[in-house]
Specification:
132 residues; mainly alpha
Length: 132
């Protein structure tokens, strides 16, 4: 039974990292991948089908981790509050930039949202690196 739980956790983590790597990596490289506003819109639209799907993998991973390995979850997250706060803050900033990019009044708004996506993506990636 433990082997099944480990395989399930590994599958969920792999699924999340593959799909999240697409949007986090694209967000980190957004200033270089899209030189103009139209190109940046295309870069952001390229991972739109995967954007919410990767969060389902993350919720499944958290459920397996908490349900099957509570001691590991406690060891992994104990003493990591500053890293977790940075991770969540970066995630919120990135998602806010992605969701509100097309809803603003003009090019300055889109540039600010692009900066939020880039900064948030870097914060998420660095926080995951520190956490793991």
């Amino acid at each position: 039974m433990e082997t099944l739980a480990v395989v399930l956790l590994a599958c969920c983590v792999t699924g999340w990292f593959v799909l999240a790597g697409t949007d986090i990596g694209s967000g980190m490289l957004l200033p270089w991948l899209g030189r103009g506003d139209a190109e940046r819109r295309l870069v952001l639209a390229s991972f739109a089908p995967f954007f919410l799907g990767n969060e389902v993998w993350l919720v499944a991973t958290a459920g397996v981790l908490v349900g099957c390995f509570p001691a590991l979850e406690g060891e992994l997250l104990s003493g990591q509050a500053p890293v977790l706060v940075a991770l969540l803050a970066g995630w919120i900033v990135r998602d806010a930039g992605l969701w509100s990019r097309g809803r603003g009044p003009g090019p300055r708004w889109r540039a600010a949202c692009d900066a939020a996506v880039t900064a948030g993506s870097w914060a998420v990636a660095l926080s995951w690196g520190l956490l793991l």
